[in-house]
């Protein structure tokens, strides 16, 4: 039978709020190692994970950060690569937020020696770009930052 007009029971007003997209409350990324013997730990919201041994396949990580990145809030987390020895390297792939919306650095001796903070890109060592693109080839704690200035709304 056809639907009667007008509708006998209209939608209640106001309509319920849409369910929030919980994916935007989580940072998501994957890591893989070149040898499958790379050891890492993550620190998110001040909580450091147990040591994780990577495989040569992508391993996905997801952490609820307690607020939506779509609001443009700044957020930082870190990944510590613990056992570099030459052939061991870690490869980071951003899922949310995207790599273009993250700032990745390796604060300390390497970053300073490589001139990574120099405004003149020609004076920066090529390793700065590798780190920013997600290649973690040196032992240390890599800082990842998503900031409102990077335009996080997707």
Could you characterize the architecture of this molecule?
The strands form 2 sheets. Strands 2, 3, 4, 6, 8 and 10 form a 6-stranded antiparallel β-sheet that branches. A 4-stranded antiparallel β-sheet has the order 5-1-7-9, covered by helices on one side. The protein has helices at 109-113, 126-132; strands at residues 26-33, 39-44, 47-48, 52-53, 59-64, 75-81, 90-96, 103-105, 135-136, 140-146. It is globular and about 40 Å long. It has 154 residues and is mainly beta. It is built from 2 helices and 10 strands, in the order ββββββββααββ. A hairpin with a 2-residue loop joins β2 (39-44) and β3.
User: So what's the overall shape?
Assistant: globular
How many H/I helices?
2
Report on the biggest sheet. 6 strands, antiparallel
Q: Tally of extended strands?
A: 10
Mean pLDDT: 84
Gap from first CA to last CA: 43 Å
Please indicate the percent range of residues in DSSP E strands (runs of 2 or more).
Answer: 25-35%
The rounded Rg comes to 21 Å
Helix content: under 10%
- The class by helix and strand makeup works out as mainly beta
Low-pLDDT parts are 14-20, 149-154
Summary, kept brief:
The chain is mostly beta strands and 154 residues long.
Question: Which key features would you list for this structure?
Answer:
mainly beta; 6-stranded antiparallel β-sheet; 4-stranded antiparallel β-sheet; 2 helices; globular; disordered C terminus
Write the layout of secondary structure elements.
Elements: E1 26-33, E2 39-44, E3 47-48, E4 52-53, E5 59-64, E6 75-81, E7 90-96, E8 103-105, H1 109-113, H2 126-132, E9 135-136, E10 140-146
Antiparallel strand pairs: 1-5, 1-7, 2-3, 2-4, 2-6, 6-10, 7-9, 8-10
């Amino acid at each position: 039978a056809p639907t009667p007009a007008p509708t006998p029971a209209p939608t209640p007003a106001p309509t319920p709020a849409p369910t929030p997209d919980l994916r935007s409350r989580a940072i998501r990324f994957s890591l893989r190692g070149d040898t499958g013997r790379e050891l890492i730990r993550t620190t998110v919201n001040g909580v450091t994970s147990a040591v994780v041994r990577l495989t040569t396949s992508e391993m996905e990580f997801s952490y609820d950060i307690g607020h939506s990145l779509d609001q443009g809030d700044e957020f930082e987390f870190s990944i510590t690569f613990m056992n570099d020895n030459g052939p061991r390297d870690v490869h980071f792939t951003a899922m949310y937020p995207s790599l273009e919306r993250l700032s990745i650095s390796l604060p300390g001796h390497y970053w300073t020696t490589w001139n990574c903070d120099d405004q003149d890109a020609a004076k920066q060592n090529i390793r700065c770009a590798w780190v920013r693109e997600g290649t973690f080839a040196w032992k240390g704690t890599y800082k990842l930052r998503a900031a409102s200035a990077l335009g996080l709304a997707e």
